[in-house]
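S.,

Sequence below, as promised.
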Amino acid sequence: MPLQNALDLSREPALHSFITGIGERASLDELARLRIGTALRLRRASKPIRGCAVEIRSPAGSPLGWLPREDEAALEALGIDPDTATVRVAAIVPAFQRPRVRIQILLPDPVAEVAPAA
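The prediction came back faster than expected:
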């Protein structure tokens, strides 16, 4: 039986991204606690770092890194508030020194179709 290293991403509509800046922000202890499916939090930072304004935090509130700028723009275009978004770890990819962490940001339920104005 093959090992599963990713969530079944086909069941729920979501944006797929990754955590940038892990080497600068995340502690090795926090990274060791991450598992596939771990819920994460997004938080708009008061002061952007290198253009990144949405911080990704562990369930305990420790900083892990940043949401890439282009994905921040996608959230904004969809009207999703980062502070209320549902985020979880989708995959953990081993890499030199620090793992690469893929995330998924669940999209809210679609709004019921609105009848056109008369």
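Residues 1-5, 111-115 have pLDDT under 50 and may be disordered.

Coffee later?
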